Amino acid sequence: MTDTLGVTTRTTQEDLERDLRQRVDGEVRFDDGSRAAYSTDASNFRQVPIAVVVPRTVAAAAEAIAVCREHQVPVLSRGGGTSLAGQCTNTAVVLDWTKYCHRLLSVDEENRTCVVEPGIVLDDLNRQLASTGLRYGPQPSTHRSCTLGGMIGNNSCGASAQRTGKVVDNIAALEVLTYDGAQF
Ligand SMILES: Cc1cc2nc3c(=O)[nH]c(=O)nc-3n(C[C@H](O)[C@H](O)[C@H](O)COP(=O)(O)OP(=O)(O)OC[C@H]3O[C@@H](n4cnc5c(N)ncnc54)[C@H](O)[C@@H]3O)c2cc1C
Asked: In whole angstroms, what separates CA 52 from the centre of its chain?
């Protein structure tokens, strides 16, 4: 049944909003302004989201996904939103990783690896790595705003990828959470 959420679900906006607000540590936005702001990316596509969640932690994002799963509502992750083919627009609960989940967690200079949260912007990462002499290789021309999460989603490249390889060639490990709750 299609209800006020605008998608076919077995829940209502009121129930979804209540559970997201009660259980998720973060900003939960159902207002028209926020939904309009997240309705497009760098493409020509426009899909107004059901809501926007800005989780304060990765665990909070996982909880938001659990709530959406229980309500059978789709989710969509968003980094810098610079995608060119509508990857960041959908009638879904949009998770914005950029505001809080953007830390460089550790650097292993010897093995030339680091651990990051997905909302970190590429230029911010490379600025923080500068003192080590290391940098993350693939550099899309949106490097000032694209995030590692979004780069992984798109398998980004850019001019430097001729030398460094694409993102797929520069990932040592991923922590993955699927919609059905599997974590690996
Ligand atoms: C002017 C311009 C120039 C560009 N130049 C290049 C270029 O040179 N090379 C290139 O490769 N690309 C280029 N792009 C495309 C785009 O900028 C890159 O692909 C960029 O890396 C996307 O990063 P983002 O953070 O904006 O991703 P987003 O657009 O936010 O997301 C990309 C995808 O990843 C998913 N995603 C985001 N975060 C997560 C997460 N935490 N977990 C799971 N999925 C997630 C999203 O749902 C989406 O499907 C360009 C785009 C523009 C507008």
From this structure: 12
